[in-house]
Amino acid sequence: MQFTEGELSSADGLGFVFSSVLPCPKNIQRITSIFVNRAGRFCMRSKAVVKRSDVSVKRLDLGDWIELTVNLNEQTAHCTVWPKHGQQSVSGTFAFGNMLSNFANEEKELAPRGERNFVPQISAGHFGCLVKNEGVTVTFGS
Predict the structure, then answer these.
(1) What confidence score (pLDDT) does residue 86 get?
(2) Res. 25: pLDDT tops 70
(3) How do the residues of the chain divide into helix, strand and coil, expressed in percent and rounded to 5?
(4) Considering only CA atoms, which of 46, 65, 60 is closest in space to residue 11?
(5) pLDDT score recorded for residue 61
(6) From CA 100, how far away is CA 122, in angstroms rounded?
(7) Alpha carbons 59 and 45: distance in angstroms, whole number
(8) What digits encode the pLDDT tens for the residues 71-84?
(9) What are the pLDDT digits (tens) for 85-113?
């Protein structure tokens, strides 16, 4: 994908939502996802909690082409950014399995007795992007 026009915010990025059904787009604090934020850092969200990884790519800028590949079997996410002016591409791979397990364990400890764990299974999901400011446009490629 590519952010093509407008003014990007620090909240903008792209990612993968773990869910077998499309999530509600109005409240991202109800999802579990892995994403690359505007700063180029891999992060993981489970409801209102966001954890940053140590893995990053370059800062996402207008005109950069950004590819995200998620392997659910290996529990990895790989991102490559091709800068708009043709410089060398930058890639990073984040193994998210441990962080996802930590979210699940934390939820088990915090959930009232008898309630089910709300961290989803990682058998399905959806790609998406977050755009905060009006006027930002996105182009998808394949």
Answers:
(1) 87
(2) no
(3) 10, 40, 45
(4) 60
(5) 96
(6) 9
(7) 19
(8) 999 999 999 999 99
(9) 889 999 999 999 999 888 777 766 665 55
Between 20 and 50, whose confidence is greater?
Answer: 50
| Helix, coil or strand: residue 110 | helix
Query: Distance (Å, rounded) from C-alpha 34 to C-alpha 25?
Result: 15
44, β-bridge pairs? 34, 51
Name residue 4's amino acid.
Answer: T
Contact status, residue 6 vs residue 137, Cβ threshold 8 Å:
yes
Contact yes or no for 12/132 (Cβ under 8 A): yes
Q: Which two tokens stand for residue 127?
A: 């790609």
Strand intervals (E) in the chain:
2-5, 13-18, 32-37, 41-46, 49-56, 65-71, 76-82, 90-95, 125-130, 137-139
Kind and range of the H or E element at 103? helix 97-110
Radius of gyration of the chain (CA): 16
Residue 20 makes CB contacts below 8 A (sequence gap 6+) with: 120, 123, 124
